[in-house]
Amino acid sequence: MSRTPGPSSSPPPASLPPSPPRPSATRRRPDAALGPVLTGALRHSSVLTTAACLFSVASAGAAVALPAALGHTLDLVLDSRPGGQAAIALCAVLLIAEVLLDALVALTGGVTSARSTAWLRRRGIDHLMSLAPHRVADHFTPGDLVTRLTGNAADAGTAPTTAATGLAALITPIGALIALALTDIWLAAVFLAGLPLLTWLLRTFARGSSDSVQRYQRVQADIATRLVEALGGARTIAAAGTERRERTRVLAPLCELGAQGRHMWQIYGRAVVGSSILVPLLTTAVLAVGGIRLAHGSLTVGELLAASRYAALTAGLGGVVGQLNALVRSRAAAHRTGELLTLPPVPHGSRPLPVDGRGRLELRAVTVVRGGAAVLRGVDLVVPGGVTMAVVGHSGAGKSLLAAVAGRLTDPDSGQVLLDGVPLCEADPAQLRREIGYAFERPVLFGDTVGAAIGFGPYEPPAHEIEAASRAAGADSFLRLLPDGYAAPLARAPLSGGEVQRLGLARAFAHAGRLLVLDDATSSLDSVTELHVSRALVHDVRTGSRLLIAHRVSSAARADLVAWMEHGRIRAVAPHDRLWADPDYRAVFAHTGDEENRAAS
Ligand SMILES: Nc1ncnc2c1ncn2[C@@H]1O[C@H](COP(=O)(O)OP(=O)(O)OP(=O)(O)O)[C@@H](O)[C@H]1O
């Protein structure tokens, strides 16, 4: 309730991060990023924001009315006029109302901020999940994203409350100035004389601190990005013995962070010092002139008392500095969170796949550009329904990208991909995820238990299907040795690289649809296990087409057809036996052992 003059309360620096590490998203028009966040947060908490606004305006009204009531009461008491008791009661009511309203502002404001923040985080994460993974990676690092969706979202979530209470922060001094003028026009004139200086102080603060806060948040994000990278590469760093160097790298932006932090404090400090000098000077000047006016009989004692309170409240305009600071911070944070929302989501259609489709995959003139260069160049390829096709080629030929395009993990820059005659971009996304299974070379496992990690997918398969998939992937034997079997906590299960890969395979088998894409998903398996998996794939997993990115001759030899890729193009499609006669084809497998090559030939 106390509206003390001078810049106040909230500390200047922003508390959260991220950075601009990757290009374009951060170069969009600021308003394009800001609009959806601020309007969305406001719309989402409109009732509470309106309540907070009304309470704070009412509280400001009580604050402005109180000095007049006090002054009037004092005059009544001093002159022994009737009505003193009623006036005292009115003062008490105004005082209590102000306290209660302030409490309500704090309550509704807190809830509004919490709800807006929760909405922003949900919206941000939903949007993130709707984006193409490579597009996200092009624009944001993981650390940057985390800070945008946590700290920045929390700061941005305070915007509605700050704006609502900011209105009251303006009403109080402006109302007090009007009341001062009504009490005595000369006193208001004295105050107005100093107003240009106060206005200049506020404008300088707002301008300087906005830049500084944005830079501070970016540097914080940079540190978060480096930290996430270091955590991801912890084993490599330990093996290389470069912990000290890494520590230095992660903390390198700290100097700039400190500089930006100091700069913010300097701007804030200058504003505080400026208004701390100006405000008492103005108040004192008003009091001095008020004293003269009292001596001349132009003011009563009660009016002087009211005038002194109004001068203090009017000078509370300096307190807007704190409010401005909070607004600047939440605006900068909203801008950072909003940049994520400006990335266009992957468009989807709703066409169903034909019920009797067998997983015929067709790529028509598919071109994919990465880093400014075409990585897949006009690829035409047909995987007939029910056929297993191995994709082979030298490292960097574009095999993984082809696998990503096949299951719509990324869209081609030109050309079309069709599953059972339906262009993937027109297909119902939920059905697409049920009908296309993926296993990767280095799968990431999700779930509380190892069983849940296998069941993780668009639907939860029953336990017996999870176990059957696990057997097919050669994972059942080692899972049963775990103390709790399939219920063993994933985080504490001691899994080798090959075992993780088998769990990834089991996950894909458990959700196998009409198309199964195995992107180098058996690379860590020994030959015996790989043979077991290949057989299980034919006999124990739902039938459909398979696209296998393969490096081993044995995998290519077992496939019905081989697509041989070279420099982003299909060089040939034929059974392995037929291609083997070509020395260039054999050179693709030059890295595999002679024994395996002999066996395959
Ligand atoms: N996001 C990207 N930005 C730039 N270049 C990319 C990107 N993704 C892939 N590439 C490039 O595309 C090429 C093909 O990559 P891809 O992973 O498909 O090769 P690959 O045939 O699967 O190789 P490997 O057998 O080594 O896994 C590589 O030269 C790679 O550097």
Automatic annotation (TrEMBL):
For this chain, one GO molecular function annotation is:
ATP hydrolysis activity
Q: Which parts pass through the membrane?
A: 47-66, 86-113, 158-179, 185-206, 271-295, 307-328
Sequence ranges assigned to domain ABC transmembrane type-1 in this UniProt record: 51-329
Q: Where in the cell is it found?
A: Cell membrane
Supply the source organism's classification: Bacteria, Bacillati, Actinomycetota, Actinomycetes, Kitasatosporales
Q: Supply the alphabetized keyword list.
A: ATP-binding, Membrane, Nucleotide-binding, Transmembrane, Transmembrane helix
Biased-composition ranges, Pro residues, are 8-23
Q: Which species is listed as the source?
A: Streptomyces inhibens
Q: Which domain of life is it from?
A: Bacteria
Q: What is this protein called?
A: ABC transporter ATP-binding protein
Do the record's keywords include Transmembrane? Answer: yes
Q: Give the CC-aspect GO terms.
A: plasma membrane
**What membrane topology is given?**
Multi-pass membrane protein
Q: Taking every annotated instance into account, which residue ranges of this chain make up the domain ABC transporter?
A: 361-592
Which SUPFAM superfamilies does the record match to this protein? ABC transporter transmembrane region (SSF90123), P-loop containing nucleoside triphosphate hydrolases (SSF52540)
